[in-house]
Amino acid sequence: MTQTTSHRQAPRGQKIQRRPVHGVLLLDKPLGLSSNQALQKAKWLLRADKAGHTGTLDPLATGVLPLCFGAATKFSQLQLDADKTYEAVLLLGQKTSTADAEGDVIETRPVPAITPELLAEMTRRFTGPQTQVPPMYSALKKDGKALYEYARKGEEVEREARHITIYKLNMTPAQDPRAPAAIKIIVSCSKGTYIRTLGEDIGEAIGCGAHLGSLRRLETGGYTDRQCVSLPALEAMSEAEREACLLPVQSLVAGFPSVTLGADDAGRFLSGLRRRGSPGQWGPDSAMVQVYGPSTGSGPATDRPAFLGSAHVTADELIPGRLLSPIEIQDMLVASPSLASSPAVPAALAH
C-alpha cells in the first residue's frame, strides 16, 4: 500500500501553514534516508497537506522515488504495480544477516574466477520467470507485523515464495575495496522483486555467497532517474521553483488511452455514473483510460481539457474508476492550470 500522511510536526518554533498541493515529484532519494524520511522532508518543503510515496526504497538505496501529493495519491497504486529497473553492486565471498552491506557478516567463502562464461551462465539462469522467498529484512507483514520486526529479534518466520519476472539482466565484473570480487548488475524486473534476494541467490549459484554493496533504482513505471531532483537541490529552491518540479497528476496514467467528455457527460461521470456511448465512442474495451472534461477555470489553460480521473471501458460503457473531486480540480486550476489540464507528457512515461 502507498504510505500516506496528512501531518508532520514542524521544527520547534516554526509553524508551517499547510496547503493543497497536487502532482508528482520525482525525488532522487539520498543514501541513508528511509523513503518515509525523504517523503517528510519534501512534504515539508512544499508545505503540502497530503502526500505519499509509491513503494519503499531501503535506506541503502538511492534513485527514483516518485512522491505523490494531493490528488496524485489516488493513482499511486499504478506505480506500486509498475515494472522497475535497478543497478546494483554485488560483493562476492560474504553473506550478511540482511543480504546487504548494513548487516553483520555471517559467512565467508572463497570466490572462484569470475569469467565471462560464468557471468553468461548466471545471466541465462536468472533471466525470465523466477520464484523468490522475500527476505526477513523487509516490510512485508506476517500476522500484522513487518518481517523486519521479527528479524530484529532474531526470529525467522516462514514466508511464501513469490513469482516474479526478470525481463533483462546485465552482469559485468566490478571493482570494490570491500570484497575480493564484485559484479555490477542492471536488472529490469516485475513488481515484488527483491534485488537483495536476487544478489544473494546469484552468490549462492556461483558458490561463494554475496550481498549488496549498493543499490540504485534507475526507472519505475516510465519515470527515470534523469528526471529526478535531489533533496539538496529542492532545499535551495524557492517555493515556486519547487512547485515547477511537480509533474501533473495524470502523468501517472500517461501510458493509457484517453477519453474526452462534453460538459454534461463530465458532470455525470464525476458523480460516479457510467456513461453509455455509441459503438466505439470510447474506443475499444480497455482496463484503464484517462478521462478529461471541459476546464471550468480561468486563465490561459481553459481551452485545454481538465483531468477528471480514470475509468475502464467495457461494451461501450465508460465506467468510473479513481475520480478527482471538483475541489481538487479547482485547486489544481488555481494553483497551476498546466497541472490540471492535459499536458504534453514525455514519451518515456508510456507504461
Please provide a written account of the structure.
The chain is α+β, with helices and mostly antiparallel strands and 351 residues long. Helix content is 22%, strand content 32%. It has ten helices and 20 strands. Strands 1, 2, 3, 4, 5, 8, 11, 12, 13, 14 and 15 form an eleven-stranded mixed β-sheet that branches. Strands 16-18-19-20-17 form a five-stranded mixed β-sheet, with helices on one face. Strands 6-7 form a two-stranded antiparallel sheet. A hairpin with an 8-residue loop joins strand 6 and strand 7. The chain is globular and about 70 Å long. The two termini are 20 Å apart.
**Outline:** globular
Please indicate the percent range of residues in DSSP E strands (runs of 2 or more). Answer: 25-35%
Helical segment tally? 10
Q: Mean pLDDT, rounded to whole units?
A: 88
Based on secondary structure, the structural category is alpha+beta
Q: Can you tag this structure with a few keywords?
A:
5-stranded mixed sheet; 11-stranded mixed sheet; 351 residues; globular; disordered N terminus; single chain; 20 strands; 32% strand
